[in-house]
Amino acid sequence: MGFSPKHAIPLSNITVFGGAIANTMLNYPKRHPHANRPLVDWDLILVMEPLTIAGALLGAFLNKVLREEVLVVSLVLLLSYTAYTTLNKAISMYKKETVALLREEMEKESEMTKIEHGEHQDDEIEVRKGLLENMEDGDTEEHVEETDLDEVVLDEKDVEDLKKMLEEERHVPSGNVQALVAMFVVVLFINVMKGGGAYDSPLGIRCGSTSFWIANVIMLGWILIISLFARSHLLNKFKDKVRVKYPYVEGDIQWDARATIIYPIICMLAGFFAGMFGVGGGIVKGPLMLAMGVHPSVSSASSACMILFTSFTATTSFMVFGLLIPEYAAVCVVVGFFATWIGQLALWYLMARFHRNSYIAFSIGGIVLLSVFLMTIQSLVSMAEGHHEEPGGIC
Fold first, then answer.
1. What is the tens place of the pLDDT at every residue in 125-142?
2. Which 3-state string (H, E, C) describes the chain?
3. Less Cβ crowding at N or C end of the chain, within 10 Å?
């Protein structure tokens, strides 16, 4: 369309922002498929987002000094591996779902055959009882939780604490949201105040000066403080869950001492590669969460929520520095919103129709694979046209 990169990137970002708004609106009222709590995993976001941002900031510096050929080849290799692992995960999930659906269908056929052949009354009663029990097991997770509470021997205080914990999990944790908002507000403020190579700092800070680097260190330090707060919060929460014999469900991560170190480090590396290659964090976070064993629906919803935070911060920065073209921005945010809304509804319809969560994994892997092809084609075209940019400095 003839836009320069300086204006094309902000327009792309606000399109993503529009899609993130639609995603969040659709996902906010939805509940976890196996528990009575929000679909979005706010503990996971609290762990992933701060160090992902820190990694992205560090990666962005490296992006400015590496040769374009190195960046393109590395990005294609990274996305190829990500697509391969994600699609493998999707195929594995699809096979498991197929086996489960076939087993369920065979059980139903077996039960109906017994009834049709008119076996004695007792057998028919037992079949009906079995069917009823299966229906009750699949209705809600609240029944499972109540059974677990009856079977586990706990003292009265632990039982009350567990009930309180389960009740609190039914709602969005305001503390997590406040910590994330505080992190983004401070990061945005420091970014605006320090300026950069493309714009002047309101405080007169020159890019590459001592003040410039102090501002960056303060920003990374603030992110580290939020990360340490998140780790302490989740460790305390994990200890309480162990004490009250908390009933974990499929896809839950147990935030013990090891998990609260390993996963944040992996997230920082993911953010680093996203920042270094100049790609959206969602293209890395979605596959990463699937690899961590998070339920596909939770992974998709949580990733979309994180993109809302990051794209809003970036869009605000672009607006502050006058890089966003208002006329096109309005169109882009509307297109992003409705395209995402329609796509999400179509995907959720297919999942409900065919009872397959693997469709989410396939969509994530497919998008990453498509990115690999487009990046490769774009690179070949640029090489054929003789376009080449020499690496520059930080500023």
1. 454 445 445 544 544 444
2. CCCCHHHHHHHHHHHHHHHHHHHHHHHCCCECCCCCCECCCHHHHHHHHHHHHHHHHHHHHHHHHCCHHHHHHHHHHHHHHHHHHHHHHHHHHHHHHHHHHHHHHHHHHHHHHHHHCCCCHHHHHHHHHHHHHHHHHHHCHHHHHHHHHHHCCCCHHHHHHHHHHHHHHCCCCHHHHHHHHHHHHHHHHHHHHHCECCECCCCCCCCCCHHHHHHHHHHHHHHHHHHHHHHHHHHHHHHHHHHCCCCCCCCCCCCCCCHHHHHHHHHHHHHHHHHHHCCCCHHHHHHHHHHCCCCHHHHHHHHHHHHHHHHHHHHHHHHHCCCCCHHHHHHHHHHHHHHHHHHHHHHHHHHHHHCCCHHHHHHHHHHHHHHHHHHHHHHHHHHHHCCCCCCCCCC
3. N
